[in-house]
Amino acid sequence: MTDCFTNGLLDVEQAMDKMLSALTPATTESQNIHLEQACGRILSEPVRSEFSVPPFDNSAMDGYALRAADLKQSNTLRLIGKSFAGEPFDGALDAGQTVRIMTGAVIPDGADAVMMQENCQAEGDNITFNSVVKAGDNIRRSGEDIRSGDIVLPRGHKISPVDIGLLASLGIAEVTVYRPLRVALFSSGDELVLPGTPLKQGQIYDSNRAALRAMLEKMDIEVIDLGLIPDDKKHLEEAMQRGAHSADAMISSGGVSVGEADYTKEVLEQLGQVSFWKLAIKPGKPFAFGKVDDCAFFGLPGNPVSALVTFHQLVTPALALLGGQMPQQSLLLSAISSDKLKKRPGRMDLQRGICWQDENGALMVKSSGKQGSGLLTSISKANCFIRLPRESGDIQAGESVQIQLFDGLLSSKS
Ligand code: AMP
Ligand code: MG
């Protein structure tokens, strides 16, 4: 364990590995739900297609179905009928014949190609073709997208709006998913008050719980809001016991710094097994992880930006695992820093940035402003994290840096 720490700070990747290897999915309970309720839920069984998609060979164009080889004899064929979407041609095509066909309509038996209508001239029942086609041209083959029996969505997949369309196209009206994860949430600190009430000297508003709750709800997690817990042992103990009894995971913010006038550490040591780490990440050094009974515990730092960043970077993958979701890699892009960025070696920085494309299409990034761990405007104005490695020093203007675009949890734009 000691090899993970340098200068007493634990690498973020190592913290992640430790957490993920200590966790297993919180639920194996499945529910059958209607497709309309399925967006955002996690499949507990793979979905297979019971038929091929497209289910039949069909036309990719409006035009005429024919036998490609016939055009070698003559460029005029006789029209014998029509095949429209939902109204197939009843019969088969013989040599020298053609059938009017619309996009998506069934290819008539005997035809092996479709000529687009722009290359055809109709005079009564005589259709003249001004171009040639090969067998197979302009035909969408049965099973080209999905073959009968294929797994279309695996177990652990989180259902997106597009997946809803895919499932509907397969005629699936119900899916089997895990029950939603239940997460208990509280804030700790005597200085905190609820938005909407006046502030007394020394008080601040509880912003962490509001933002964390919104993010959890966006993740389709059931939130058990335990409220604002004052810095006293009895209240903390009660909150943690309630959380452990009612939820799969518990998240608190504040009170995890070392040497504070609070009881988080003492209470947790008494109730469960929890490690207090100093992470090599800026913002967000103090972090607690462990278990109270079977409930995973995540103790976030109190500073608002630190709380949101550590939640986003460390807790969301852990919650995904608890909820039965397959692991996902976040995408890192390279961008050119337009300005100098200040950075001290020792911790990985997740600076808040604004990225854009310059006139040549190059991806550029700049700081979103003052970077203090309590300054929520820096994250509110940003659209990405600028991810600067632990040992890196200052970044000069023009240098390439890695960025991570904000996802739908941190931004309403994506
Ligand atoms: P702590 O980790 O409890 O020492 O908190 C660090 C800083 O974050 C202090 O300035 C706290 O007032 C602030 N803080 C703690 N919890 C919250 C919260 N829920 N909302 C906003 N600020 C908080
Ligand atoms: Mg505190």
Instruction: Provide a count of the helices.
Output: 7
> Helical percent range?
10-25%
List the bound ligands: adenosine monophosphate, magnesium ion
Strand order, sheet with most strands: 9-6-8-7-11-10
Strand content: 25-35%
* Structural domain count: 4
Provide the structure class.
alpha/beta
Radius of gyration over alpha carbons?
30 Å
**Spans with pLDDT under 50 lasting ≥5 residues?**
none
Let me know the number of strands: 28
Q: Under CATH, the topology of the largest domain is which?
A: Molybdenum Cofactor Biosythetic Enzyme, Chain A
CATH superfamily of the largest domain: MoaB/Mog-like domain
CATH architecture annotation name of the largest domain: 3-Layer(aba) Sandwich
Task: Sketch the major β-sheet.
Answer: 6 strands, mixed
* Separation, N- and C-terminal Cα atoms: 38 Å
Instruction: Give the CATH level 1 class of the largest domain.
Output: Alpha Beta
For the residues shown, what is the average pLDDT?
Answer: 95
